[in-house]
Write a structure and sequence with these properties.
Radius of gyration: 18 Å
Largest sheet: 3 strands, parallel
Low-confidence stretches: 157-170
Shape: globular
Order of helices and strands: HEHEHHEEEHEE
Helix content: 25-40%
Strand content: 5-15%
Structural class: alpha/beta
Number of helices: 5
Length: 170
Amino acid sequence: MPGYGHKSRNEWGEEIMKYLAGRKQLVRTFVLIDSMHGVKHSDEALLQALRGSAISHQVVLSKVDRILFPKGRDPSRQMLQRNATVLQQTAASIRDRLDSIDVAGPKPLGEIVGCSAATSLERGKWLGINNLRWAVLSATGLNQKRRSPSGLDTYKGEGTTSEPANAEYS
């Protein structure tokens, strides 16, 4: 978002924070943290501001493909398992850092969602994007089951009868 991160302007950030704090309809914001760099000073400042303003937020760990598939190639099964462990440790370290931010207010909601917009495992399946979509649906309440006129359980607004696959890479 403008006003946050590389080449930002302070006045943009101030305006964005005013907007976020004033939006009564806002149920959650999503904060992207680069998996290769962890929580930077600017990330921590944003998270402190969100907490201090009691703005609901969830963390998205971006560029996880760079940990899972270093140098853009398919690793061996052993290497992939090792890289997945490194990714889990990275997420745990980031969660610990988020928990240590000393500002009164709500902590990040939900789990840290990992994703990549650059790596697909198969055509049209970007790494973790379906999990991110589900987090957005959950935040808006569109994942709530309801009974359709046909008697089938569906999810509000989607007409689907099931949650996304619980696969880590869907």
